[in-house]
Amino acid sequence: MRKQLLCGALTLSMVLGAAAPAFAFGLFGGGDDSEFDQVTYAYATFNNIPAEEDLAVVEEAINVITREEIGAEITLKPIFIGDYSSSVNLSLQAGEKIDVIQSVGDFNNAVSTGMAMDLTDLLDEYAPESKELMGDAWLAACSFEGRIYGLPTYKPIALTPMVVYRQDIADELGIDMSAVNSIDDVTAVLEAVKAGRSDITPLAPVEAGSLGLNRTYGEVDWLTDDYNTPVGVLIGDDLTVVDLYSSDVFKERCALARSWNENGLSMKDAATTTSMAAELMSSGNYFCYMAAYSYPEADTAASLQAQCGNYPIGAKIIGDAYLTTADINALTWMIASNCEVPEAALRFLNMTFTDERIVNLLIYGIEGRDYVLSEDGYASYPEGEDAATVPYTAQLSCGTLGNFFIMFPTVGTNKESLTWELEQNQEAATSPAMGFTFDASSYRTQYTAVKNVISQYLNGLLCGSVDPETEIPKFVSALNDAGYQDILAGKQEQLDAWAAQQ
């Protein structure tokens, strides 16, 4: 949660004492019942849903600004992250008013089902600052057939694979984690931990069915698929769609996982456990796990400290970041296709990327009530309060809405990290298919069958609980029987057509 230092937050007294400014009727296209356009902003939250009366205070603080700036009043609609996609879909189908929505890993579905409005001809007039901020490459990632359907969350997005580990055990055993620079260096660390601390398991899974090895493939573009279950990928700079599961890099990772499993270096039942890395690390029974993060090592470790129990945590980068279309458009902000006030909705969306007052109200709420600022501009909860007790907070959503780089920094983070994060976004290696989006609508049957095969084989292979020498050939054969090659051919055809237009 690294955020840039800003000034000008609205305090609770300012909100309650502010009168709505006079505004010329019709200047921004107000409706018959109000001089202000009404915009409903539906956003995912990882925090508690606030009480209606507490949310209303934040709404009013935002509307004090938006009535004057864009002639609109905003209704906030926070939705718990686990329910977001289904809730928005059902609400829109029922005709409920929702104007601004976000994709949560389902950008393609929002476009292919007609849920999202084509914004191409609106951006220059109603969101020029955001358009300039994003740049052509990021906007291309949120496009289909040359038309722009949304604005991606502007945040540190270039993920680097890391080992997250217990610093106290590394110090105790004299393990120099600074020498761990690639996946090839990890085995020796795990062996040292096993030899020196037989009471703990060296490696925990990052999530059910994954040791994190699928984040260490290197320059692989999933071509719109979920990285956990890719179906046809690009490797390196070649625009030839290939079968990941027959590739050398996949075979190497599976062999590595198998050796770790057989030698007691990783959790034996990683393929079937329902426990996540933070829970396992908190138990004190594991040394490390592997995942991918978009922050510097020290900041990553600091942000994970509380989640991983009362143990000092370190983090070490073991690979380079690689950007693909899906990395950018996974969290895309869109205007619902049935929105009656798209101009006002887009103006407000633009403000979430450009106006620090709006962004910090959405994330932190009301200064003095929901958070306090230190003299040097760091945000924290009021004394005696936390995320569960303040009337409003969406702090855990800091990387999912608006412009991350104009949010207040939180206590314990480093403002200088913003420079590193921006450089990662700008300098990370980029897929040659950046901007390509695969339309899978003609392959739904094959996808269903192929995903079922993947769920049967992949976890065991990537966690080392089965022998890759015998199981990978069975896996690939079952994929082909399920229609795998149809999908690969379809991706290649669409990719070739896309490349010809570039």
Report on the architecture of this protein.
With 502 residues, this protein is an alpha+beta fold. The protein has a domain of 229 residues: Periplasmic binding protein-like II (D-Maltodextrin-Binding Protein, domain 2, 3-Layer(aba) Sandwich). The chain is built from 18 helices and 17 strands. The strands form 7 sheets. A 4-stranded mixed beta sheet has the order 8-11-7-12. Strands 3-14-6 form a 3-stranded antiparallel beta sheet. Strands 1-2 form a two-stranded parallel sheet. The longest helix is centred in the C-terminal third of the chain and has 20 residues. It is globular. 48% of the residues are buried. The N terminus is likely disordered.
Which SSEs are present, and which pair or pack?
Layout lengths: L11 H6 L19 E9 L6 H19 L1 E9 L3 H10 L6 E3 L4 H6 L10 H4 L1 H14 L1 E2 L2 E2 L2 E2 L7 E7 H7 L12 H11 L4 E3 L16 E2 L12 E2 L12 H15 L14 H6 L3 E8 L3 H8 L8 E5 L4 E2 L1 H5 L2 E4 L6 H13 L1 H9 L7 E2 L5 E2 L36 H11 L1 E2 L13 H20 L4 H14 L2 H18 L1
Parallel strand pairs: 1-2, 8-11, 13-17
Antiparallel strand pairs: 3-14, 4-5, 6-14, 7-11, 7-12, 9-10, 15-16
Helix pairs in contact: 2-14, 6-13, 16-17
